[in-house]
Amino acid sequence: MRRNFILFTMLGSIAIVLLACAPQEELDAPLLQDVETEATLLPTAEPATTESQDAAPIVTEAPASVQHIDIPGDLPEYTGIHLYDHNKNTGIGSIEGDRFYWSKLERPYNNDNEYFPFLDITDVWFYDADPTWFFTVIAVTGPDANGILSGQYAVEVDLELEGNGEWLFVANSPTTTDWTTDGVQVWRDSNSDVGGKVAVFPDAEGINGDGYDVLVSDDPDAAWMRLSTEYPNSLEIAFKKSLFGEKTKFMVGAWSGTDDLNPALFDLNDHFTHEQAGALNPEYSDFYPIDEITEIDNTCRLGIGFEPAKTVKRLCP
Asked: Does a structural domain hold residue 114?
């Protein structure tokens, strides 16, 4: 027994000497082997039950759908505001209505001269008798091969009566006779560059403007669309009168198109040369046939709230 005590004392003295001589960083470092050994010897504990674990799981709800308040009703009393557009079924057809220099586009065709009746506007009716809404009805010669109106359709509004535009209401591929905002866009020109320096006609040097540059989204009820319940091969676009503030006199026209109906490229004859755009009329031999601008149609404009002078640009004859 005494021998064991002496041996233990000697081993302890040696350990003290070794620890005293060891560098400080080694003393501060954990003894990994001892930690691992202890970990293997410790019993596996069940996770503690806490209040947060007992709480119900957090459920992430889907964003609430838009709750519409202002919804258009039926068309109001018709007050006789109507325009008739060149189309394939009139006289020499679309050719007479296509004058690129004058911002008149009558091109319901592609580069292979394939005709698209769902882009060929025939008539536009405008209703202004409702206290809350303006209504526009756009009629085309017929649907596409699938029996639907699969184009983009738009109403352009000129509040300054200068031949350019301040607002563009776009309806994409209407499919229902119920009013909907799905596929409807409201665009505004915030920096007055639609039409360039010279409205209607091409600017000599061209422009690098951004056209209708603001997509208005502060009012989810600002504009609606539906397939017309009163006119065949037609759609209706309704938009709030309050968007124009105190303005009660303006010019309005209609558009149809596909990819070239781009709000950022208004007016098209400021962003494309006549050579680039081409021409529908073979008499314009320097530009014929249509080239980079295809599958698009627009109309002349109607005066709303006043009787326009004959000198107002884009006025229907």
From this structure: yes
In a domain, 47, yes or no: no
130, part of any domain: yes
Question: Backbone phi, then psi, for 90, in 5-degree steps?
Answer: -110, 130
- Asked if 107 and 88 touch (Cβ cutoff 8 Å), the reply is no
Which residues, other chains included, contact 258 with Cβ-Cβ below 8 Å and sequence gap of 6+? 119, 151, 152, 295, 296
Report the distance separating Cα 240 and Cα 246, nearest Å: 13
Q: Categorize the per-residue pLDDT at 64 as very low, low, confident or very high, splitting at 50, 70 and 90.
A: low
- Supply the DSSP symbol for 315: B
How high is the mean pLDDT of the chain? 84
Contact by Cβ (8 Å): 156, 253: yes
Q: Is the pLDDT of residue 5 over 50?
A: no
- Please give the backbone phi and psi of residue 180, each rounded to the nearest 5 degrees, phi first: -145, 150
Q: Residue 59: its pLDDT value, please?
A: 42
DSSP-assigned beta bridge partners for residue 167: 157, 188
Does the residue 32 lie in any domain? Answer: no
Q: 137 forms bridges with which residues in the sheet?
A: 125, 236
Token readout for 75 is 């068309």
Angle at CA 188, nearest 5°, toward 182 and 192? 165
Helices (H), 166-279: 268-271, 274-277
CA distance 139 to 123: 5
- Domains held by the chain: number: 1
For residues 119 and 151, the answer to whether their CB atoms sit within 8 Å is yes
**237: CB partners within 8 A, 6+ apart:** 135, 136, 138, 153, 154, 155, 169, 171, 184, 223, 224, 225
214 contact partners, CB below 8 Å, separation of at least 6: 187, 188, 189, 190
Torsion (CA) 174, 179, 180, 181 in degrees, nearest 10: 100
pTM across the whole model: 0.80
Domain interval for residue 93: 81-304
